[in-house]
Specification:
Radius of gyration: 32 Å
CATH class of the largest domain: Alpha Beta
Number of helices: 20
Helix content: 40-55%
Distance between the termini: 83 Å
Structural class: alpha/beta
CATH architecture of the largest domain: Alpha-Beta Complex
Strand order of the largest sheet: 4-5-8-9
Number of domains: 4
Strand content: 5-15%
Length: 505
RNA sequence: GGCGCUUUCGUCUAGUGGCUAGGACACAUGCCUCUCACGCAUGGAACACGGGUUCGAUUCCCGUAGGCGCUACCA
């Protein structure tokens, strides 16, 4: 391979929300580009006007913004190889289709989709190829004047690639090694449709990758069967010397059962398969997204990076910079990877742990506010530092720590039974009096005073603290007691204590 | 059906001819402890099968079986 500048692309079709598998493909492209000081191009492959979904392009762009995958060039990013939307490149494709027609690598076919359907119904495994093309209605079988007449009459046609049979086509894949297929099994693919004056994927893809100086094509495994066709296309254009290197990534599979990961799996098992929430413009259906489900983008990236690739050491927590440094196409696994959403939850937990308390508090603040509470950021940050280790998602923090803001109205029955004894009220009254007498209500001072009191009286640590906890929290959970009383303050602590004494008796 | 890709613990994977087959998630147990968690420690758990090649195969080759993908005027 020559020392060509690394240029890769992510080229989705705007047909709906970006699937998580597509996100991983984009991520690998990004990592590869950045590692090699190259560029990542964002191209929109909208050659099928029937499948266009409004809003999809914006959705995809917003997804990558959230995830921190940055493009260097392409739709909305500019660059010298534009336009980057295939629907805006009609003239370019038209020109190259003509090149193929002129050098006999392609031909015009008039068979309608309906006619082909009939043919397929009649003949088992019918394929439009060297063995059948002469019996079809095309410029190879028909006299030249008739072809011209049909075109002049405005008859719709397609341009098909003329695949020469009996040739071993070799694809050198960066992940899978040498893949060889016999050109005889390939069909004469439609490259261009006169009806909408647009090419199909195969032609547009090759022309664009060539014109945009793409050096490596990193894409999903579903493209592997058509890679030989693409090689043939590069050859037909005489671009074989600058043909990009291919790397076909394994697919993402269902967490359980058979098949590839689908939206249904997410719904069934309770995890998203899209980066952002998606509102389908036609059906109005809403699909959940990782962002709205409270996943941190770092966790999604880290998890996805390790699904089908790993650096070969035991380090799993990796920042984007680290991933860029360590990524290696040759270490990508060849077999499909099941989507282990439990591990992703673990990653989310780890990233909550790793992030600054303040940063988590800022994410948490709107959740708190939605419950009608307006804490100051300092207090919330302290609470977060005490509580964040116990949750997998930021929003779970509310259930874990709402007692800091809202006094218990009820007391958990089981906990009362277990922790509130006949003499608890009396002891809590003593504790209340003791705390009331403290001028210094700091956590350290409370801790000292209460311990001395417990020791002097010969009380059990557990009986005091558990009853105290029940009074302040309403149930048997939470951090160290003085981390609660100290933060809610003396007045609130005494109020909760007194209420428990009254209510529980 | 045809063609291609693929196959190590339940899951993600390390491994590249000789290892007690390593790590992580999940699971179980224990420790910590004023509760619940976190955390920490420990444990169970895998080379799909059959032939070769070799002194020796998880590792190389060939089959079989399973899995996945493609087989459109969709990408």
């Amino acid at each position: 391979m020559s020392e060509r500048k690394v240029r890769v692309r992510f080229a989705p079709s705007p047909t709906g929300p970006l699937h998580i598998g597509g996100v991983r493909t984009a991520l690998y492209n990004y990592l590869f580009a950045k590692q090699n000081g190259g560029e990542l191009i964002f191209r929109i492959e909208d050659t099928d006007s029937n499948r266009f979904v409004p809003g999809a392009e914006e959705y995809i762009l917003e997804s990558f913004r959230w995830l921190g995958i940055k493009f260097d060039e392409g739709v909305t990013f500019g660059g010298d190889c534009g336009p980057y939307r295939q629907s805006e490149r009609r003239d370019i494709y038209k020109k190259y289709v003509q090149v193929l027609l002129d050098n006999g690598k392609a031909y015009i076919a008039f068979d309608t989709p309906e006619e082909l359907e009939v043919k397929r119904a009649e003949i088992d495994n019918f394929q439009y190829d060297a063995s059948t093309r002469l019996s079809m209605r095309n410029s190879l079988a028909l006299p030249a004047d008739e072809v011209k007449a049909l075109i002049d009459a405005g008859k719709q046609y397609v341009v098909r690639f003329k695949v020469e049979p009996g040739e071993k086509v070799v694809v050198n894949d960066l992940i899978r090694g040498v893949v060889t297929i016999d050109s005889s099994i390939l069909d004469d693919k439609v490259l261009y449709k006169s009806a909408d004056e647009l090419p199909t994927y195969h032609l547009a893809n090759i022309v664009d990758d060539h014109l945009m100086n793409i050096s490596h094509v990193i894409r999903g495994e579903e493209w592997l069967p058509s890679a030989p066709l693409h090689v043939l296309l590069y050859r037909a254009f005489g671009w074989e010397d600058t043909m990009p290197q291919f790397a076909h990534l394994s697919l993402l599979l269902k967490p359980e059962g058979n098949g590839k990961l689908s939206k249904r799996d997410g719904d069934r098992l309770g995890f998203p398969v899209f980066p952002l929430e998606w509102h389908d413009p036609k059906s109005g259906a809403v699909s959940s997204g990782f962002r709205e489900s409270d996943y941190l983008p770092e966790a999604v990236i880290n998890f996805l990076a390790l699904l089908g690739w790993n650096p070969g050491d035991d380090v799993e927590m990796m920042s984007m910079d680290r991933l860029i440094e360590k990524f290696d196409l040759a270490k990508c696994s060849k077999a499909g990877a099941r989507f282990d959403y439990k591990k992703m939850i673990w990653f989310n937990h780890e990233y909550i742990l790793q992030k600054d308390d303040r940063e988590i508090a800022e994410i948490f603040m709107p959740v708190v506010q939605s419950h009608g509470v307006e804490p100051d950021m300092e207090l919330l940050t302290r609470i977060v530092s005490l509580m964040k280790g116990r949750v997998n998602f930021v929003h779970e923090l509310w259930d874990a720590c709402s007692f800091y803001f809202i006094a218990p109205v009820e007391y958990d029955e089981k906990t009362v039974k277990k922790r509130w004894k006949d003499d608890s009220a009396a002891k809590m009254a003593e504790l209340a009096a003791l705390l009331d007498g403290l001028d210094d209500f700091s956590i350290e001072n409370q801790d000292k005073a209460v311990h001395e009191w417990i020791e002097a009286k010969g009380y059990g640590m557990g009986e005091i603290m558990n009853a105290f906890r029940l009074a302040l929290v309403g149930e048997g959970k939470g951090p160290q007691m003085f981390d609660i009383s100290g933060l809610i303050g003396k007045k609130e602590t005494l109020a909760r204590l007194n209420r428990a004494i009254t209510v529980l008796g």
